[in-house]
């Protein structure tokens, strides 16, 4: 291991992470296209720069740019079916990200919780761990493989299964606030906040199931703004960015 890599890991203070990307983040605002190749390419470059330091990285991508199961269910579709359609959407996004990463010479593999041999490996925990330890980025597609669970829950579940050090949740805001910053100009942003404070103050960090998994297993979460160019690299490199959610603030 090079001296530069060792120093980067020391500064970063973690060696394995899960990056959660929303499907909406792959779409250019106002565009009719579900996926923006330019945005996906930018994300791939930023991930490339981060994993060059030796970071072991898994990625979970949502599917909201194509489909939202809860919304379809509210309009009359069977909820389980609606969620399965959403899982297929995450596979499309995962394949797009895989292609962009390969263009950047980043070795990566897509593992799907729903078996589809022609486009992805089936999710096998030990195989995913081996990929990570060998320097490949692993993209987890199709959610948990079961309806009624969000991709937030997938990221929490996979992070714990992979024995990751932290979850990075890339969002459209620059952290966790004590109230909605779009409605309250005086909203306070937390640099660091505890799991208990998130519960007692009802701060919206993740959905309840995902947050419970992180709380129970003391899995820290970093919430940051993916819309700012370079933020993925900054976050994954350990820079002080966004809001850090942990056991003790």
Automatic annotation (TrEMBL):
Gene Ontology MF terms: ATP binding; UMP kinase activity
Tell me its EC number(s), please.
2.7.4.22
Checking Pfam families in the record gives: AA_kinase
Pathway note? Pyrimidine metabolism; CTP biosynthesis via de novo pathway; UDP from UMP (UMPK route): step 1/1
| Cellular compartment(s) | Cytoplasm
GO biological process: one example = 'de novo' CTP biosynthetic process
Where it mainly occurs, coarsely classed, is cytoplasm
Query: Highest taxon of the source?
Result: Bacteria
Under catalytic activity, the entry for this protein gives:
UMP + ATP = UDP + ADP
Locate the Aspartate/glutamate/uridylate kinase domain: which residues? 16-225
Tell me the protein family, please.
Belongs to the UMP kinase family.
Q: What does this protein do?
A: Catalyzes the reversible phosphorylation of UMP to UDP.
The name under which this protein is listed is: Uridylate kinase
- Native species: Roseibacillus persicicus
